[in-house]
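Usage

Read records sequentially. Each one opens with the input sequence:
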Amino acid sequence: MNARVGNNRAANIVGTNGEATLNSNDRKLIDFCTFNNLKIMNTFFKHKEIHKFTWEARGHKSIIDYFTTNMKTSKEEFFKVRLLNDESIRWLYTQRVKLHLNNTMENEIDLEKEWENLQNILKSAANESLGTIKRRNRRKYLKTWDDQIKQLIETKKKSYKKWLNSKKLKDKLEYKRNTALVKTEETACIQGNIDKNVFLQYYEKLWNTTNINESQLEYNSTNYLHASITSDELEKALILTKNGKTPRQDNINSELYKYVPEEFKLRLLQFFNNIYTGNHIPNEWRNAVITPIFKKDDRREPKNYRGISILNTCYKIYSKILNMKLQNYSEEFMTETQNGFRMGRSCTDPKFCLKLLTEKRREFNWETHFLFIDYEKAFDHTQRQILFNILKSRHIPDTLLKAIVDIYTQNTILIKFNNKLSKPAAINKGVCQGCPLSPTLFNAYIYTKL
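and closes with the structure output:
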């Protein structure tokens, strides 16, 4: 069209950062964009004058090449939880929670119905007091950034600036050569080489086993200590729950649970106790959305990704409470040499001791031998039935044990990759990476194995 659309804003199609000149074809391009729901992106971003123009000849410059994009980009709505830092907004939110709490049936016996009620209370209160924000699903292709890529991109930028200023052929060829080098290096980093269904098949095979011991655990009816969850445990779990974490499909962040009034906490406590004593979690909690995170080596191999479970926020609060109960017993049979996955401990001291020991023995020219064992896919290869038997042998109270067994019953996964969800698949092996219970459960499992 050779159109020059100017810099006068036009119905969210033309921005104010284009060139000032118009020509007779401007209306044709604007009408075309209006009909096809497109926006001219060149005109929406501020750049230096030297970078704006796409054509230059005989001392004249103009923008006649345009980048247009569909305005119907994918968006998700999220609650503006940052507003809860404001005390007045927080007060408004708690009042809205109280209002919706009074409008729903109290202590619904049906757990699925009660779970739906609790979600609706928080969503309605958050929507009325905080509002929502639409977040675009931007696909970021380059996921790794190493020194080599960084150096190549810096070289490419320098050669581009040099060509812009000189307009010499040799500088243009140098810029194109550097661009080709960057693209070659980035090719290995482009997501999309693996389809979500390939990930699903991989994790379905990894987290399933045919060697299932069908023997049922025998529970002792008298071994029902600590058969309820206390308000102190709930309060501590809420404090330990981190802010800013990705929520599940319900979009209820941890902050929305932290700033609820006492009336809602009491109802949530009753809901947790009904689950704990009834040994049946809501069906939604049995589903985990798995996000593959690249670790190293070939990006086309699913085994080189770590599957992180995106779990429901309310489930994570509940599992934190179970984890606190379990730690009261696991600490009794853990040795002092076990430092991993234990509160108040880390691997810093053992590493320092190894370093100090090595230095001292070298000083006297003594041989020193260390054994390092790296368990491949350690969480993924945990056999659940063996784990439950270990917990039983460690005299974990039956109420707590049954609650843990219930969590790991009839689980399904969905793979989220490139902002797309796969179909669900059933699993029966491993503990979830991302679940507060998993480190303590794995500690008990591996301690017995060693």
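Summary fields computed downstream for this record:
- Residues 150 and 381 are 37 Å apart (CA to CA).
- The chain has two domains: 1-72, 194-449.
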